[in-house]
Amino acid sequence: MQTTIRYFASVREAIGRGSETLDLPEHLRTLGDVRAWLTQRSARHAIALTSDKTLRMACGHVMAEVDAPIVPGCEVAFFPPVTGG
């Protein structure tokens, strides 16, 4: 399944790109599966996606938890927590 993965803020800086479109293996079912698979792509991915336990995720522009299912065609995003004021 071809999916666009977007990286924001410190995650983008650590990986060195804002997005990539990848063919995800069929066995990936959840956002957690995608995150784990991405950590194997490069050392930069591993550092960016495992160093922050509070990393947030979204699927289809909706905040989601690690066990959320991957919906075909949805855009996946990873970003650090944000605060406002």
From TrEMBL:
CDD domains: Ubl_MoaD. It holds the Pfam family ThiS. Coiled coil: none annotated. This is Molybdopterin-converting factor subunit 1 (MPT synthase subunit 1) (Molybdopterin synthase subunit 1) (Molybdenum cofactor biosynthesis protein D) (Molybdopterin-converting factor small subunit). It comes from mine drainage metagenome.
